[in-house]
Fold this sequence. Notes:
mainly alpha, 20 helices, 79% helix, single chain
Amino acid sequence: MFRENIIAELKAKIESSPYDAENYRNLANYYVGCEDFNNALLVYKKLIEIAPSDIQSLLNIGSICFYRKMYAEAIEYFNKVIKIDENNFAPYYNLGNVYAEIENFELALSNYEKALSINPDKAEIYSALGYLFQDVDNLEEAKKYYEKAIKLDCVNAENYINIANVEQKMGNIEDSVINYQRACELNPNDAKALLCLANSYAALKEFKCAQDCFKKAIELEPAYYSAWVCSAITYCDENNIEKAMELLKHAIEIDPNKSNAYVVLANILVDEKRYDEALNLYKTVQSIAPDNPKILTFIANTYVFMNNYTQAVKYYKKAMKIAPKDNEIKLIYIEMANSYINNKMKGIK
């Protein structure tokens, strides 16, 4: 009721002064605060009718369009800002975000660079460039931009997470730990940063540190599915299979529609030679993601372990039909076929 009263009051002001842009702006901003972007967009557009050079409203329209994946319209409104003020960094930065989202690397890069030429001290532009180069696996260039972002904004935890992610991909695990630690110091309640730190510790086989971080992440977010799964995988690495299985079963309870926990648990059961139980789990995953060739290959592999080559061939062929260019599946199939032939020659059925 409180919200309705405020909206009614703001609308009444618009009715009494229909050419006062500030009234429209107040109503649109209120809608944005309520995350009612449809109505915010309508009001901003009415504002633009009476104040076509209102730069902030044009930027807001473009941002809402971007948020709603209306990319062509977002580009249109950001370009309107440039026509009004070509020395404003914001439309170029936002255009960079749009083009990055639609995977047009060249236009994203050129707009980010234009934004930097206007405002070279804006850390978020360097971060955006880091994301852009990271997406095309140019990790050295991504790292360079993330380092510049940190120099300009050394208290933003996200900057340290970004560079830590790159360090991890580059195999610099010790450096990734340092940066994840810094992110956690800046924001101790960031469960995602704790999860990343835990995974880096696990990669270094510092299992106690890893599990301590997993525990903290789960305490912050008890239903953090990925933390339960990653913690279970780390227990597997420690050869604590019983604990790993316990955590994976809990992850499945948290979200039975996600596949990772099923797959990891099924893989454990295969190692334990509990093939029937593993098959049940793989087939549950198949019902969640029926066109996933990797799951079909796991099922086929399990049938091979059970010496059921007829079913194995059936699932390998299904996998290859879905992913005909996947050489790894073809290689596994060929190895299985050779094994089958050799076993037949030895009299093993």
